[in-house]
Design goal:
alpha/beta, TIM Barrel, 462 residues, 28% helix, Immunoglobulin-like, 3 domains, globular, disordered N terminus, 18 strands
């Protein structure tokens, strides 16, 4: 581990405490660090934030083998099959001839997504294997080389736009196909090759932006290698180049490394990019008091760890819709977005299990989405029964109930000057629940019925 003088100063300052004069002089000038302090508050960012729920789509050549190679099923992530099954590039490249998704119907996908309640969708334009789902001028390893007769990403963008769903592009910096990609930079030759790779990636990204000016932002991945960390300037330049074309563009923190290779947060501790995107298959803790101060997004798989289509979902736990809803609610309650992944198969069909989960979530969202869109951290202590969420548009306080106490009484803590005047179950909106004032909080009496799904309570305050 490299220890910089700056880090030593930070440690000393930390030991001395917040009043230390050293702490005041702590921030150092970074060429490739964070570009602004605090949250972005422009309309594009506010829209991203208010969207709260998104659909992730992992689709590429890996959808064809679906985790199986030469009769053997690999339990690891399907989109990593080329690596986990040690498949030669020539064998992998041959999948290009097999990619012809006859069932691809992006309007159907978009209608399903809309019914599920998402407001944005992030699709893989290029994953680690380097295959490009759009027709790129800069490589032949793309959709144009397949038998598929169309511009797949274009069709996707248009279909989702028709449903009013914002589109974001996933783009893997890591590239197993490109000859100039390097995991590390050890020689001059590596540097020169990597500079060419950077130009290639930048060209592709600007190409995507030019072809699809509707795109709201980019979701970068595959940025953990030494080569990328040693070249924080590249990550900075890419973000700047995209924003020079469209200042509204939203970029995840995962793209970035600073002058010292620090990722997501620069060496001053400031977030790089527009939102924290480190929450892959997990959520922050309820007790994390720093998280509510920033924008962030968690991305989640339905099985334990499958992003691309895997033919055998019996190999790991497949989440129930209510588990997923809880993750969505928890994210919103802590000021975050939630991106739920789908992996269409090699023909372009969305598997039945995913359709069923989408429908279940959609039914819940139809009744309860007021607690999701425009939802924010309510600045109240988390209670065992569930999550508080405040709707910033209507200024309504909600409680989303996941654990109904045997006593049927839930504790509602409010700031001193706020009175609880009423509480209704938001799905029927009629019956007022009994409110019992207590010493430092209220108790609300729930009906003695079993709820089959999470229930939203609407609190009327004065
Ligand atoms: O696209 C999905 C995954 O395929 C991709 N990100 C999501 C959104 C992903 N790629 N890798 N990973 C997730 C897991 C990362 C594993 C790592 Fe490592 C552990 C990166 C660094 C340490 C594996 C081991 C790769 C390099 C060494």
């Amino acid at each position: 581990m490299r220890i910089h003088v700056f880090n030593v100063v930070m440690i000393v300052a930390f030991v001395l405490g917040a009043n230390s004069p050293i702490l005041l002089a702590q921030k150092q000038d970074l060429k490739y660090g964070s570009q602004y302090q605090g949250k972005r508050e422009d309309a594009a960012m506010q829209k991203f934030r208010s969207n709260r729920f998104g659909q992730f789509i992992h689709w590429g050549l890996y959808a064809i083998p679906g985790g199986e190679w030469k009769g053997k099923v690999y339990p690891g992530a399907a989109e990593w099959l080329q690596s986990s099954a040690k498949i030669s590039s020539s064998s992998w490249n041959a999948l290009v001839d097999k990619f012809n998704p006859s069932k691809y119907n992006p309007d159907e996908w978009a209608i399903m997504a809309k019914k599920m309640g998402v407001k944005y969708a992030t699709i893989t334009t290029k994953h680690h294997d380097g295959f490009c789902l759009w027709n790129s001028e800069y490589t032949d390893f793309d959709i144009e080389a397949t038998k598929y007769n169309g511009d797949l990403i274009k069709e996707f963008v248009e279909a989702y736009k028709r449903q009013g769903i914002d589109v974001y592009f996933y783009y893997s910096i890591l590239d197993w196909h490109h000859p100039d990609w390097r995991n590390d930079i050890k020689t001059d030759e590596d540097s020169i090759a990597f500079e060419r790779y950077f130009q290639f990636a930048k060209n592709q990204l600007l190409e995507l932006q030019a072809k699809f000016p509707e795109v709201k932002g980019f979701w970068f991945d595959g940025t953990w290698d030494e080569s990328w960390k040693k070249n924080g300037k590249y990550s900075y330049e890419i973000e700047m180049a995209l924003k020079a074309v469209n200042p509204d563009i939203i970029v995840n923190s995962r793209l970035r490394a600073d002058d010292y290779g620090s990722r997501h947060f620069d060496s001053n501790g400031d977030l790089m990019g527009d939102y924290q995107s480190g929450f892959e298959r997990f959520l922050p803790k309820n007790t994390d008091s720093t998280i509510v101060k920033m924008d962030w997004e968690s991305c989640m798989t339905i099985p334990v760890n499958q992003w691309g289509y895997h033919k055998d979902w019996s190999l790991s736990h497949v989440k129930f819709a209510d588990e997923i809803i809880e993750m969505l609610v928890k994210s919103v309650s802590l000021n975050g977005n939630f991106l739920l992944n789908f992996g269409p198969d090699g023909n372009g069909a969305i598997r039945e299990e995913e359709v069923a989960i989408a429908n279940e979530i959609g039914k819940w969202m139809t009744l309860n989405s007021d607690a999701i869109y425009n939802g924010v951290f309510a600045n109240l202590e988390k209670q065992d029964w569930g999550y508080y969420i405040k709707n910033t548009k209507t200024n309504t306080l909600y409680g989303v109930l996941f654990n109904k106490p045997i006593s049927n009484l839930i504790k509602v803590k409010l700031p001193k000057n706020v009175k609880l005047k009423g509480c209704v179950l938001s799905y029927d909106g009629q019956k007022s629940l009994q409110i019992i004032p207590h010493e430092k909080h209220y108790l609300v009496k729930l009906p003695k019925i079993m709820f089959k799904h999470p229930v939203v309570l609407e609190f009327k305050l004065e």
